[in-house]
Amino acid sequence: MRVLEQEAVGGGDINDAYRATLDDGRVVFIKQHADAPAGMFAAEAAGLEWLREGPLRVPRVLEVADDHLMLEWLDLGGRPDPRALGRGLAQLHRLGAPSF
Question: Could you please report the per-residue DSSP string of the chain?
Answer without folding.
Answer: --EEEEEE----SSSEEEEEEETTS-EEEEEE-TTPPTTHHHHHHHHHHHHTTSSS--PPEEEE-SSEEEEEPP---S---HHHHHHHHHHHHHT--S--
